[in-house]
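Sample entry (87 residues):
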Amino acid sequence: MHACDIITANFSSRHGDTQSLRKVYKNAAYLASDWPESIWQKWLEFERINGNLEDIELATRRILERREHWAKQAVKEKPEAVVLKHT
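Predicted structure, serialized as tokens:
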């Protein structure tokens, strides 16, 4: 999350602007480069408190897409670091 996103999120949460805050989380979920898991977790917490079932499902789908993207990037960058479990 960029500094301006954090400021926007703090302002929006204090003033009850859930639509703006939802946009911040959606953008941050895609743009985060450091610790995206923490942003994803906060987005899901936000939707559980402020959203409805549809909002939670949408956030979950988008987060899963981003996790898949990150996993593919990790394989491309460091294939030796990825350990696959055989079941």
